[in-house]
C-alpha cells in the first residue's frame, strides 16, 4: 500500500470527515473508495467509447427491426 500526501480545501475536508463519520468508515477508507469509484467511471467511459467506435449503424438498425411493435408499459410512455 502507498501513502499519499494530499492538500484539500478546509470545506472539502470537513465534508469528507462528516460523511466518513456518518458512513462509519475512516477518512482514508472514504477517500480510497471515492477514488476507486472515479477510476471505475473513467475506465468504463473509455471502454464504452472504444466499443462505440466499433459499432455499425446497420447492425443497430437490424437489431431494432426485431423489436416487437407494441404499446409501451405503463410509465414508459413518452
Structure in words:
- With 78 residues, the protein is an all-alpha fold.
- It has one domain.
- The protein has 3 helices and no strands.
- It has helices at 10-23, 27-54, 57-65.
- The longest helix has 28 residues, at 27-54.
- It is elongated, with a radius of gyration of 22 Å.
- The chain starts with 9 loop residues before the first helix and ends in a 13-residue tail after the last helix.
- 0% of the residues are buried.
- The model has no long low-confidence stretch (mean pLDDT 95).
- It holds the Pfam family HicB.
- This is Toxin-antitoxin system HicB family antitoxin.
- It comes from Candidatus Brocadia sinica JPN1.
Mean pLDDT across every amino acid position = 95
Largest sheet: none
The portion of residues assigned to helices is 55-70%
What is the CA–CA distance across the termini? 50 Å
* Helix-strand topology string: HHH
- The amount of beta strand, in percent, is under 5%
Model regions low in confidence, pLDDT < 50 over at least 5 residues: none
Number of strands: 0
- What Rg do the Cα atoms give? 22 Å
How many structural domains in the coordinates? 1
Pfam families: HicB (PF05534)
Protein name: Toxin-antitoxin system HicB family antitoxin
Amino acid at each position: 500500500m502507498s501513502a499519499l500526501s494530499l492538500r484539500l480545501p478546509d470545506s472539502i475536508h470537513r465534508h469528507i470527515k462528516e460523511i466518513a463519520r456518518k458512513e462509519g468508515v475512516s477518512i482514508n477508507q472514504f477517500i480510497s473508495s471515492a477514488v476507486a469509484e472515479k477510476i471505475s467511471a473513467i475506465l468504463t467511459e473509455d471502454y464504452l467509447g472504444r466499443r462505440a467506435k466499433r459499432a455499425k449503424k446497420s447492425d443497430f438498425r437490424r437489431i431494432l427491426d426485431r423489436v416487437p411493435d407494441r404499446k409501451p408499459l405503463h410509465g414508459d410512455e413518452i
